[in-house]
Design goal:
heterodimer, A: alpha+beta, Aldehyde Oxidoreductase, domain 4, seven-stranded mixed beta sheet, six-stranded mixed beta sheet, 29 strands, 28% helix, B: alpha+beta, Ubiquitin-like (UB roll), DNA polymerase, domain 1, 5 helices, globular
Chain lengths: 776, 161
């Protein structure tokens, strides 16, 4: 055998085609609605038609008369099911969450009864016949209502679900008032429906006394298994959770909520496999929502435009049954790591209301970038300097590090300033300003928006679910490589990126590596897709496990062929011995010996070829970016067209540029949707007003420009050097676009930052009138 | 509820079945015949995920009843690749360009583009992008879909030259 020793193939960094695509492009994926089990019945929910009140009667008689309807459960039926509903952090929910409404309804869409029937259609027929009588009360809908209105949850003193920080003190007020410049702006971010293309869904079957198998649209089968085991007080070892393909999660599917819990509890009670697939109406109006925040931010500056101090008052409308009752303190924690902010104070509150509860959504603290980057632009205008200049004066550049924020977060390898400089190398601002001035003469209104930020990614070791990741990598007796991981892809492509890492570090062809995930029985605990973490942490685990396995192969080969382990390399799936090309062997040859002839192995070396490693990264790994976009606003229609968008980001080692750019683009599209289109409004009686995709406007191909990427990557301190990139686009998208729109509207005046910027709101500014009804 | 006997061809295979009048074509393909590659995502005709070809035309299978497809020839996403597994040019273009992430909207996207490019038709990028405005993708920001369209248009031009 005469094999040339090729250089080790660098798969990390390659735009490698995705492993997932072959099945997903040919209709062979396995989503939760594709699961059908013998004896499986279908569920549908009867929901509250009103926002608030006491249930006086639930009449199920007519529904039960339909042939094929097998049962209807209300909370009374679940009363004896021991259930402890928790938040994402496995902590308690204070407002006691029951599976179905317990005597009261607290929002339109609150699930009241669950029908079990032979088909989804029959279940829906029956649900529509259930009569829910409610002694209706005036609901609390807006944040203003929540502050002034009666408690949503009887027995509570007020509607504050959580509060942190404090009202501004005299000392800070004096600093703000005494500064050369003080800029204060108020913001309202509308309510968002996460809207994954695959709605929520669950199939649950009770196999024996304690054993349960669950298929669920989720972001980590491991996290669901742990959550269900704790919530239902069942041994985790008896619960197996599958989620091979999931059609988008975005934070909504972090852990099971009322309906999924009802299906799991119902399968235990009823003794038949149950399936529930949410329809789009439910997904829009009764899946947990996101955002709906108000904030007022003041930043004070010295004469030259350096930040002196800041204060922020933030509130979020958490709805009746938020999946996290928190006050989003992360908004304040992550507002300033990229900037030199000497003194910062805040008060932050979450509020209950009679609306659907909030759940997770990509970049949950993203409001911080929107309000900070907008106030910086306004301040620059007031001080009379360029928006780029005000950032240069205040951003943390490499020489400024290590830098400790007001929150005590030390950053020592962020690069927001460097990302901004790299962005500006690729965008000629002077030329744009000329073009903008010229265009205005001809009634064309162009605007440039720039924003910078850092994003804490791959959090680990400080919150119960945010752990390290386990990788088990095995060379099978056939010489092919399999890995089992706790990663989960709802589009993230982890089976691809992890295979790239493994192929490179082990020295095998990418085609020979298969990654198995999506099953709580594979790999070990990890929260999956949550907090931009999988490439960093699972990447690091795969990296080390593969290198450990390569070492074992080298030890065996050295022993078998009487060579120095240092002289052995693995590439292309072939084990080479330096200076002895005729001795090259395939991994299959080595594997057959490792499994089948353990007597030939070095003494003390266990048989088989596998390695397992759990990687614990640093507590945070920061990703930095600066973005720019150019818009043109049609002064006749108020329509915003995005002409150009540049992303300059530092996400460390890029495993696969196609995957990284896909994450950035997807987040940006969601950000664009938030600024221009998406809105889940409520009327005064608490009725959600966007019930279809004709009312809830999702961004389409014509709304999204081509994105240009500048990879300004400096490896992080993690194994492999990756930084997370899952949420960044959704965080920096809104401020970049808002700043561009405000810039374009400058000849006409200020626009109230009350998203979304519909054409009507933009025309208000252009035509100098107030038809918004908000009385600004 | 009335039941109807229908006969139709799906991906070249003949099927007959009794269906409820109210059953949508999409539901019937998935639950009745097991073609689960067709995905129902909004069930009100906006998102395009459920698009299948009916007699060569791209149709929303959530807005069409199974009984209306009686006698029809249906192509679903399972029916596009060659028997030997070679991807259809549209599928290959999507793969080459990272045109999908979660893959839930993908079957409809692929079918619409396949219908536009069927039988040697040579649509330009504008025509294909206009057709894509009837599809919602929550993951990709349409970047890879747009690149796939350009690749397909380029390939078409190449053939024409």
């Amino acid at each position: 055998m005469n094999v040339l020793i090729p250089g080790a193939h660098r798969y990390v960094g390659e735009r490698t085609p995705r492993k997932e695509d072959a099945r997903l492009l040919t209709g062979r994926g396995q989503f939760v609605d594709d699961i059908r089990l013998p004896g499986m019945l279908h569920c549908a929910f009867a929901r509250s038609p009103v926002a608030r009140g006491r249930i006086t009667a639930i009449d199920t008689a007519a529904a039960l008369e339909i042939p094929g309807v097998h049962g209807i459960y209300t909370q009374a039926d679940f009363a004896d099911v021991p259930i402890k509903v928790m938040n994402f952090f496995f902590g308690p929910i204070e407002a006691p969450v029951t599976i179905l409404a317990d005597g009261r309804v607290s929002c339109v869409g609150d699930p009241v009864a669950m029908v079990i029937a032979e088909s989804r259609a029959l279940a829906e027929d029956a649900a529509s016949l259930i009569e829910i009588a409610v002694d209706e009360e005036d609901p609390v809908i807006t944040l203003a209502d929540a502050r002034a209105g009666p408690p949503v949850h009887p027995g509570k003193d007020n509607n504050i679900s959580q509060e942190m920080g404090e009202e501004i003190g005299e000392e800070l007020q004096a600093i703000l008032d005494g500064a050369a410049h003080k800029v204060t702006r108020s913001f309202r971010h509308q309510r968002i429906a996460q809207s994954p293309m695959e709605t929520r869904g669950c199939v649950a079957t009770c196999d024996g006394a304690e054993e349960m198998t669950i298929w669920i649209g989720c972001q980590s089968p491991h996290l669901v298994a742990r959550w269900v085991s704790l919530a239902f007080e069942l041994p985790e070892t008896a619960i197996r959770v599958f989620a091979k393909d999931v059609g988008g999660g975005f934070g909504l599917k972090n852990f099971p909520w009322k309906e999924e819990i009802a299906v799991i509890a119902g399968a235990r009670l009823f003794g038949r496999p149950l399936k529930w697939i949410e329809d789009r109406f439910e997904s829009l109006t009764a899946s947990s929502h996101a955002r709906e925040q108000e904030a007022t931010l003041t930043i004070a500056f010295d004469e030259a435009g350096k930040i002196v101090a800041g204060y922020c008052d933030y509130s979020s409308n958490n709805g009746a049954w938020p999946m996290g009752e928190d006050c989003n303190v992360a908004v304040h924690m992550f507002m300033w790591p990229a900037y030199k902010m000497p003194v910062y104070g805040f008060i932050t509150r979450g509020w209950y209301s009679n609306t659907m509860g909030l759940g997770g959504y990509r970049g949950p603290w993203a409001m911080e970038s929107l309000i900070r980057e907008r106030v910086l632009d306004d301040a620059a205008r007031e001080i009379g300097i360029d928006p780029i200049e005000i950032r240069r004066k205040n951003l943390v550049y490499k020489p400024d590090q290590p830098h400790t924020t007001t929150f005590g977060i030390e950053v020592d390898d962020i690069s927001p300033g460097e990302c901004l400089e790299k962005l500006l190398e690729n965008f000629d601002v002077v030329a744009f300003r000329k073009e903008q001035a010229e265009a205005r003469k001809h009634g064309r209104y162009l605007g440039l928006g720039i924003a910078t930020y850092v994003e804490p990614t791959a959090a680990a070791g400080q919150m119960a679910p945010m752990t390290g990741e386990l990788a088990t990598v095995r060379i099978e007796p056939t010489g092919k490589v399999t890995a089992t991981l706790g990663t989960h892809s709802q589009g993230h492509g982890t089976a691809t990126t992890m295979a790239q890492v493994i192929a490179e570090r082990l020295g095998v062809p990418y085609e020979d590596v298969t990654v198995f995930e999506g099953d709580s029985a594979l790999g070990g605990f990890g929260p999956g897709a949550a907090g931009s973490r999988q490439a960093v942490i699972a990447g690091g685990a795969s990296w080390t496990a593969s290198e450990m396995l390569a070492e074992k192969v080298k030890k065996i080969a050295a022993h078998l062929y009487n060579a120095n382990p240092e002289a052995i390399t693995i590439s292309g799936g072939i084990v080479h011995i330096e200076g002895a090309p005729e001795m090259s062997r395939s991994l299959k040859d080595i594997a057959e010996i490792a499994y089948g002839e353990p007597a030939r192995l070095p003494e003390g070396l266990p048989p088989g070829l596998e390695a397992q490693y759990r990687y614990q990264p640093p507590p945070f790994t920061f990703t930095s970016a600066a973005h720019a976009c150019v818009v043109e606003i049609d002064a006749d229609t108020g329509f915003v067209k995005i002409l150009r968008w540049l992303s300059s980001e530092d996400c460390g080692t890029v495993i696969n540029p196609g995957v990284v750019e896909g994450q950035i683009a997807g987040g940006l599209a969601q950000g664009i949707g938030q600024v221009l289109l998406e809105d889940m409004p409520y009327d005064a009686r608490g009725n959600p007003l966007a019930a279809t995709f004709k009312d809830y406007l999702m961004p389409t191909i014509s709304d999204i420009p081509d994105f240009e990427y500048i990879h300004a990557n400096t490896p992080s301190k993690t194994t492999g050097g990756m930084r997370g990139v899952g949420e960044g686009g959704a965080i920096i998208g809104p401020p970049t676009l808002v700043n561009a729109i405000v810039d374009a509207l400058e000849p006409f005046g200020d626009i109230e930052i009350n998203l979304p910027f519909t054409p009507a709101k933009i025309l208000d500014v252009i035509e100098g009138r107030d038809v918004s009804g908000s009385g600004h | 509820m009335s039941e109807h006997r229908i006969e139709l061809t799906v991906n070249g295979r003949r099927h007959q079945a009794l269906v409820d009048a109210r059953t949508s074509l999409g539901e019937f393909l998935r639950d009745g015949l097991g073609y689960t590659g067709t995905h129902l995502a909004c069930e009100h005709g906006v998102c395009g995920a459920c698009t299948v070809m009916v007699d060569g035309r791209a149709m929303r299978s959530c807005l069409m009843l199974a009984v209306q497809a009686d006698g029809g020839e249906i192509t679903t996403v399972e029916g596009l690749a060659e028997p030997d597994g070679t991807l259809h040019p549209v599928q290959q273009a999507m793969r080459d360009n990272f045109g999908l992430q979660c893959g839930f909207c993908t079957p409809g996207v692929v079918i619409t583009l396949a219908a536009l490019t069927a039988d040697g038709a040579r649509p330009g990028t504008e025509e294909m992008e206009a057709a894509m405005s009837g599809h919602i993708c929550r993951c990709t920001g349409y970047q890879g879909i747009r690149r796939a369209i350009r690749q397909l248009a380029g390939a078409n031009q190449g053939e024409a030259a």
